[in-house]
Design brief:
Blueprint lengths: L6 E6 L3 E7 L5 E8 L9 H17 L10 E8 L5 H14 L2 E7 L1 H8 L6 E6 L3 E6 L5 E3 L13 H17 L7 H8 L5 H9 L12 H9 L3 H24 L8 E5 L8 H14 L4 E4 L5 H11 L4 H10 L2 H5 L1 E4 L2 E4 L2 E3 L1
Parallel strand pairs: 1-4, 4-5, 6-9, 9-10
Antiparallel strand pairs: 1-2, 2-3, 6-7, 7-8, 11-12, 12-13
Helix pairs in contact: 3-10, 4-5, 4-6, 4-7, 4-8, 5-6, 7-8, 8-9, 10-11
Length: 349
């Protein structure tokens, strides 16, 4: 293949980065996935280098060498860490220096989730994974997004905070400061320890990375389903926070009376806790009774691809073609690790 692809679409979150090269007619030429590590939360050099790795892997999957740049005319980069205008500018400078694409468009990854979950170009997207974030687009194009800088920007929730809360309650139950909870046993057991204090000491002395507390999110939901009151309170708080973020976007953008699409994505939304979703629905519908709530199960990079196709004036048929081609199986079949690329479980040098 000699002709440069029309678009490059990238969706980059805290656990993986997906990259797609496609033509204007929606034909996907190459796609790849790069698992992320040591995510710095702000689009720093390490995370951006992993974006570069994903683009090179997708280029090679498309039959390109991944060296000759630019790899595409337009690049739409939907990245966690693109939260504040200063983040956008820093990421843009990095991408311009890298020269991956001729034109560059940077957006937060919540916009990819939103576009992947609806055929409309407007609505609200909420991501609840390692952390939480929300964005919205009004029918007139006006946008809303949160800083997503953690507690200092008013955020609560996601696997990181659910896990931290589980350890907090486990520790207090263990030393007598708080009520009994299944976390007292479940939290240390997850890390193959006996007591919450051992988990605390492992983190304090640097033997256990504090980010690993995010692994406890499924433990929280499981304990809630088993009837633990503390766990259920955390699940309820997370549901309320998701509904609150979506509601704030809906109100700010004047969409309370519309059948506004609300797309939910991220690892926390993979639970089968029925009450969790019922509470989210009730909370959102209290703000916008006609809201249409969707839990995204497709790869969010579909949304980044759709945003790129929007910008090049692609047809509806092109949008459908690209969406049909981008499956988790296709992306997982070309999972790239530094120094090697995995194809269907076989590592190649």
């Amino acid at each position: 293949m000699t002709r440069r692809p029309a678009i490059l679409a990238v969706d980059g979150g805290g656990s993986k980065i997906d990259a797609v090269l496609a033509r204007k007619d929606g034909e996907v030429l190459g796609a790849a996935r790069v698992p992320t590590k040591d995510f710095d939360q702000n689009g720093g050099d390490l995370h951006m280098q992993q974006v570069h790795d994903a683009v090179v892997a997708a280029s090679r999957n498309a039959g390109l060498d991944g060296v000759r740049l630019p790899v595409a005319d337009l690049g739409v980069y939907c990245l966690a860490g693109a939260d504040l205008p200063a983040d956008d500018r820093r990421i843009l400078r990095w991408l311009r220096k890298a020269g991956l694409t001729t034109k560059i468009h940077v957006r937060n990854d919540t916009f990819a989730v939103l576009r992947a979950g609806t055929q409309r170009t407007w609505g609200v997207g909420v991501v609840c994974g390692f952390g939480t974030n929300c964005s919205g687009v009004a029918p007139n194009g006006r946008t809303y997004r949160l800083p997503a800088a953690g507690e200092i920007s008013g955020d609560w929730g996601g696997a990181s905070q659910l896990g931290s809360a589980a350890l907090w309650y486990a520790q207090r139950a263990g030393d007598g400061r708080g009520p009994r909870t299944a976390f007292q046993h479940l939290v240390p057991a997850h890390f193959q320890m006996r007591r919450p204090r051992q988990v605390m000491e492992a983190i304090y002395f640097g033997k256990l990375d504090a980010d690993r507390l995010a692994e406890l999110a499924p433990v929280v939901f499981s304990a809630a389903q088993d009837g633990d009151a503390i766990a259920q309170a955390l699940v309820d708080r997370q549901a309320d926070e998701i509904a609150t973020m979506a509601g704030a976007a809906i109100k700010r953008l004047g969409m309370r009376d519309l059948a506004v699409p609300v797309v939910l994505g991220g690892g926390i939304l993979r639970t089968d806790h029925r009450g969790f979703f019922e509470r989210i629905h009730a909370g959102v519908h209290a703000t916008a009774p006609a809201a249409e709530i969707t839990v995204l199960i497709d790869p969010p990079v579909i949304g980044a691809t759709q945003l790129a196709l929007d910008q090049v004036g692609a047809t509806a048929a092109a949008h459908r073609r690209a969406s049909a081609a981008l499956t988790h199986d296709r992306l997982s079949a070309h999972t790239h690790h530094r120094g090697k690329e995995s194809h269907n479980g076989e590592d190649r040098p």
